[in-house]
Amino acid sequence: MVARDLYEGTRTAGAGDINGIQHLLQPLEETGAVIKRSNEQLLEEIDKFTVVQRDGSIIACAALYPFYDEKCGEIAALAVAPECRCHGRGDKLLDYIEKKAISMGLERLFLLTTRTADWFVSRGFSECTIDSIPESRRTKINLTRGSKYYIKKLQPIYNRIIVDKVG
What we know:
Blueprint: H1 3-6, E1 10-12, H2 18-30, H3 39-45, E2 49-54, E3 57-67, E4 72-80, H4 89-103, E5 108-113, H5 117-121, E6 126-128, H6 135-138, E7 148-153
Parallel strand pairs: 4-5
Antiparallel strand pairs: 1-2, 2-3, 3-4, 5-7, 6-7
Pfam families: Acetyltransf_1 (PF00583)
Keywords: Acyltransferase, Transferase
Protein name: N-acetyltransferase domain-containing protein
């Protein structure tokens, strides 16, 4: 597999993707796994979403909300279509989001979850306290959801250039 094929179909979402994102998120909203977002809210935040498209359909999405002052970002609304799960789509999307965060100068990612902690832990996230969350985000957390907080320190990407020693 060539590197460009790894993220084939992965791109920043646009206004035309709102229905596809809603289609992915609706079942998760109904079970309480993710918070409900109106079409208006999605439209306002569309540039925060990354989508994976295959054959004209959105098969995965995730949002990245940067907190530049704290050099961290929140991952939210990560969803993969049921028929595409267990094929590494979530892993590739998370990897893409991590690389995007690094390119934005972010050093850590955090998330709030009520159900998928094991999946994130197996991908390098560790449980943290609410104090690890930026204060501006902390004040907006709905404590009644019972979310747990997870954080991951990002590893900078260095170009691997081999230089022959001369002399």
